[in-house]
Design brief:
The chain is an alpha/beta fold. The protein contains eleven helices and 15 strands. It has a domain of 238 residues: Aspartate Aminotransferase, domain 2 (3-Layer(aba) Sandwich). The chain has a seven-stranded mixed sheet with strand order 4-10-9-8-7-5-6, sandwiched between helices. It binds pyridoxal-5'-phosphate.
Length: 375
């Protein structure tokens, strides 16, 4: 059997990771400013993470959600404390799309309504509801396409108000920072207006923090920079540092009913051990403060780079919009300077390094970018 060829691949195979670096089989080192697509939060191969998952595997790797799991309770407790949302509840699942799917379902169950307001250029995942709320017709199959989702431009209060005021919407879903779109930030006035509109119109505010959450922005959640409290928050990527685990954080006003949500793998013992190890390292190593500090240092250094049209982002979620297409520049960064970066569209380099990135790694990146851009 061969692989179903849906991913355009770089011809490189990392076989080992340590901190902010990856290594191929020849021992060649690569600086990771992509974080495996914002997934690597505490760094590759963190000893505490390796030990905690290993110990758990030796005891019990999996049992079903039909029995009590004190690991799930510990995780909910710690996540509530570190995120500043101890009054929320947690539903555990395994991917970002699944988290958004359940968030939308919950909003719909609670309100009895079926429409969702999403925003231009949004990406929420590839399962049915999540992809319908994703503004990319190329990945929406005819089966997924639905008139239940409507789009408005980001940061356009009047457009959002015109839709929400019909009273037909169960939710508005917005990314904490739009990632795939090119690191686009919702403005504070817009998010405050959206919060008020949702409340006034009987809709729930869902903030998708799958990419921007878990400390990446320099606060636990990117929306916390804007001072609003959503009804539902979704998390994944950095939550497990590579172990597939995701969550839906649910405000106290929702009533749980047995059987309304469910999953086989969500919140299994290994996933909880991974997610607990991540939170323990984030707390002990002050990685959220580090993301804020290193983000400021990084953007300060990048500002002086030639060819930069605009710098956007918060913390260690940074978009560098260049005047020219970035494909060749990223290829040179990877193959000649051994640096992994991400991209959004044709002109934006997307930086999503591990949250333990230090000044040395930032300096290495800036040096590589300067040399790669000046050929
Ligand atoms: C903002 C956002 N939401 C949802 C998803 C989907 O997550 P997953 O690929 O884990 O389903 C992504 C993935 O890139 C994302 O960036």
């Amino acid at each position: 059997m061969k692989l179903f060829d849906v991913y355009p691949l770089w011809d490189i195979e990392p076989v080992r990771g340590e901190g902010c670096y990856l290594y191929d089989k020849n021992g060649q080192r690569y600086l990771d400013f992509y974080g495996g697509h914002a997934v690597i939060s505490i760094g590759h191969g963190h000893p505490h993470y390796v030990q905690r998952i290993g110990e758990q595997l030796g005891r019990l790797g999996f049992y079903s959600n039909a029995v009590r799991s004190s690991l799930q309770e510990q995780l909910a407790d710690k996540l509530g404390r570190l995120s500043g949302l101890p009054h929320f509840s947690l539903f555990l699942c395994s991917s970002g799309a699944e988290a958004n799917e359940n968030a939308i379902k919950l909003a719909s169950f609670d309100t009895g309504k079926k429409k969702v307001l999403a925003f231009r250029n949004a990406f929420h995942g590839r399962t049915s509801g999540a992809v319908a709320a994703t503004d990319n017709p190329k990945i929406v199959s005819p089966f997924n396409a639905t008139s239940n989702v409507e789009f408005a431009p980001l940061n356009d209060t009047a457009a959002a108000a015109a839709k929400l005021r019909t009273g037909e919407f169960c939710a508005a879903i917005v990314e904490g920072i739009q990632g795939v779109a090119g690191i686009l930030l919702p403005s504070a006035p817009f998010i405050h207006d959206l919060r008020e509109l949702c409340t006034a119109c009987g809709a729930h505010l869902i903030v998708d923090e799958v990419q921007s959450g878990y400390g990446r922005s320099g606060k636990f959640f990117a929306h916390q920079w804007l001072g609003v409290e959503p009804d539902i928050i979704t998390v994944a990527k950095g939550m497990g540092n590579g172990f597939p685990v995701a969550g839906v954080l649910i405000a106290p006003r929702f009533k749980a009913v047995h059987g309304m949500l469910g999953t086989t793998f969500g919140g299994n013992h290994l996933a909880c051990a991974a997610a607990l190890a991540v939170l323990e390292v984030i707390e002990k190593d002050h990685l959220i403060d580090n993301a804020a500090d290193m983000g400021a240092y990084l953007t300060d250094r990048l500002r002086r780079l030639q060819g930069v049209k605009e710098l956007r982002g918060r913390g260690l979620m940074v978009g560098i919009e260049m005047s020219e297409p970035v494909g060749e520049l990223r290829r040179r960064l990877l193959f000649e300077h051994k640096v992994f970066t991400g991209a959004s569209g044709t002109h934006v380099i997307r930086l999503l390094p591990p949250l333990c990135t230090g000044k040395q790694q930032v300096d290495e990146l800036v040096e590589a970018l300067t040399r790669a851009a000046n050929v």
